[in-house]
UniProtKB/TrEMBL annotation:
Keywords, in A-Z order: Transferase
Taxonomy, superkingdom: Bacteria
Protein name stated in the entry: Glycosyl transferase family 2
Record field: transmembrane: none
Lineage: Bacteria, Bacillati, Bacillota, Bacilli, Bacillales
Pfam family of the protein (one): Glycos_transf_2
Domain Glycosyltransferase 2-like: residue ranges: 162-325
SUPFAM superfamilies, sorted: Nucleotide-diphospho-sugar transferases
GO molecular function: transferase activity
Residue stretches in coiled coil: none
């Protein structure tokens, strides 16, 4: 019978320091294990280790196998392989509990897959996270540093798409947002990040990526997202503009499918699609709640005369035709309180007065809701804002 030990360390949190601390704890525990295999389960439904085991370890296991997965979930790891991989890992995750998925070997022949009665409790989360992990894993360079830039990339002299990201104090989430951009199936993009006077390590975090498609701007005084987005817009070289918040992320095909939608609909000013709605928790990080169709939401709003709370929901994702965005003057250059809320609803409302959006029928964006965000803290101001600007 194959001998294995059970890891007792459990993941906690979504912050960069949470994932780093979890890696250190797991590394320490694995380094003291003398058995050939370890059972490492990060399923958040397990109330305590040993209370429930998802599978019986198969017999025999071929010598070349380093990880055994049950329904796509990595559970059993060969100790001698896991130790050096853990020691090298230094990346960004949506939450600490996704660490095992980021360590899966690139060679599928090293993984033994076992299928049984599937557990659907977290399949949406895994389906939306794993593709980004598999494409955007760090590559160790000859000088010992980590590079996120794929070796075969040819940097475009003129990108088709400019992805704009305005951040303020987002050091714990912006790394995962950037990873999702690096995982795009379309290479012809640039990422412009504007740091709006963060007083944490956000600027240092975004500067850590060695990819020449990423450009970073900063300003010494916090002036609000709208003003920063206009500054980024003035620097953008792409014919299309895609918004990305520093605590959200893109599906791998988001850039390609939204670009195609606008390419094939030259009369449209904006492309959108479906988005995943996630709720941030302190312990587990983002938890998937449901998928939303922004195209459907737009038509419901436009056909409704009555002001409602639902109309405070923005269209997500948003890829603009740059020329159309410039024609309406971009975002409102206001630094007052009303100028700092609902700026995304405002710009899309003005843009779509004479053109409906083209919608892609798939999940392209992932939005993380948390109570401390400026949009959530000011939801009660929507009626006031609407009467002021409309």
């Amino acid at each position: 019978m194959t001998s294995y030990a059970i890891l007792r360390t459990q993941p906690f949190g979504y912050r960069v320091t949470d994932a780093a601390a979890y890696r250190e704890q797991v590394l320490l525990e694995v380094s003291h294990i003398e058995r050939e295999w370890v059972l490492w389960n990060c399923n958040r439904l397990f109330t305590h280790i040993g209370a429930r085991i998802s599978m019986t370890m198969p017999e025999p296991i071929p010598d070349h196998i380093v990880c055994v997965c049950m329904n796509g979930v990595p559970l059993y790891w060969r100790t001698s392989w896991l130790l050096p991989i853990l020691a090298l890992w230094n990346d960004r995750l949506p939450a600490a509990r996704f660490l095992p998925y980021d360590l899966l070997p690139a060679d599928p022949n090293l993984i033994l897959h076992i299928n049984s009665t599937p557990d659907h409790s977290n399949q949406h989360e895994l389906n939306y996270i794993r593709p980004i992990l598999s494409v955007s894993r760090s590559r160790e360079t000859t000088d010992g540093s980590n590079s996120m830039l794929p070796c075969n990339i040819e940097l475009p002299p003129q990108p088709a798409l400019s992805i704009l990201m305005s951040i303020h104090n987002m050091k714990d989430t912006v790394g995962w947002s950037i990873r999702s951009v690096l995982a795009q199936s379309m290479d012809n993009w640039e990422l412009l990040i504007g740091d709006d006077a963060s007083d944490d390590e956000s600027l240092e975090e975004v500067c850590a990526y060695g990819d020449s498609r990423i450009r970073i701007l900063s300003q010494p005084r916090n002036r609000g997202k709208a003003i920063m987005m206009n500054r980024l817009l003035s620097e953008a070289r792409g014919r299309y503009i895609l918004e990305l918040d520093g605590d959200d992320w893109l599906a791998p095909d988001a850039s390609a499918l939204l670009t195609k939608a606008l390419d094939t609909n030259p009369d449209r000013a904006l492309a959108t699609g479906w988005y995943g709605w996630w709720e941030r928790t302190r312990q587990y990080g983002p938890l998937w709640r449901r998928d939303m169709d922004s195209g459907k939401l737009f038509f419901e709003y436009s056909s409704s005369v009555k002001l409602s709370k639902d109309r405070g929901q923005p269209i997500i994702p948003r890829m603009y035709r740059k020329s159309s965005l410039i024609t309406i003057g971009g975002w409102r250059n206001r630094e007052d309180h009303l100028g700092r809320v609902f700026e995304d609803i405002d710009v899309t409302t003005r843009l779509l007065k004479h053109s409906s959006p083209v919608s892609v029928d798939t999940v392209l964006y992932h939005r993380v809701i948390h109570g401390s965000s400026i949009s959530q803290r000011n939801r009660n101001l929507f009626d006031v804002w609407y009467r002021h600007f409309n």
